[in-house]
Amino acid sequence: MSDPTDAGRGAHAGSRRAPGSPLLVRIWRGATEVGTADDYLAYLETTGFAEYRGTPGNRGVLALRRVVDGHAELLLLTAWESEEAIRRFAGDDIERAVFYPEDDRFLVERDELVRHYQVVHVAGWG
Questions:
Q1: Residue 70 lies in a domain
Q2: Considering the domain boundaries, does residue 12 fall inside one?
Q3: Does residue 50 form part of some domain?
Q4: How large is the greatest C-alpha to C-alpha distance in the chain, in angstroms?
Q5: Residue 78 sits in which domain range?
Q6: What is the pLDDT along the chain (126 residues), one digit of tens a residue?
Q7: What is the CATH number of the domain that holds 98?
């Protein structure tokens, strides 16, 4: 049986976690005006998403969007092999969100802190 925490293989699919080491998911939430959501996602493709892909130990990103009260709420879930991998992306304070120069132009709401979870079960994701 395959390891259920071995999901989300991305650009660094060849890298490995220590046996028994759980995959970690980092979750951030923000919101844009509905009319700028696609532009912000395109901006993220060249900033945050590109930086995720370029960070050893990143296993992928899932971006979710829903429209609520005239805003496009975005939830970004990134998968990581370890806290050390998260530090390579976020710096020493892994609880702090990472922002980019043009984020203020798009975001009408944003969480300054992120949440981290251990993946304990995956089924049907690919």
A1: yes
A2: no
A3: yes
A4: 47
A5: 24-118
A6: 334 344 433 333 334 445 567 899 999 999 999 999 999 999 999 999 999 999 999 999 999 999 999 999 999 999 999 999 999 999 999 999 999 999 999 999 999 999 999 999 988 876
A7: 3.30.70.100
Give the CA distances from residue 99 to residues 3, 5, 43, 87, in Å, rounded to whole numbers and listed in that order.
Answer: 33, 28, 12, 15
Q: Which amino acid is at 62?
A: L
| b/e map 99-119, b = 16+ CB within 10 Å | eeeebeebbeebeeebeeeeb
Cα–Cα dist 35/54, whole Å: 29
CA 84 vs CA 62, 63, 94: distances in Å: 20, 22, 9
57 occurs within a structural domain = yes
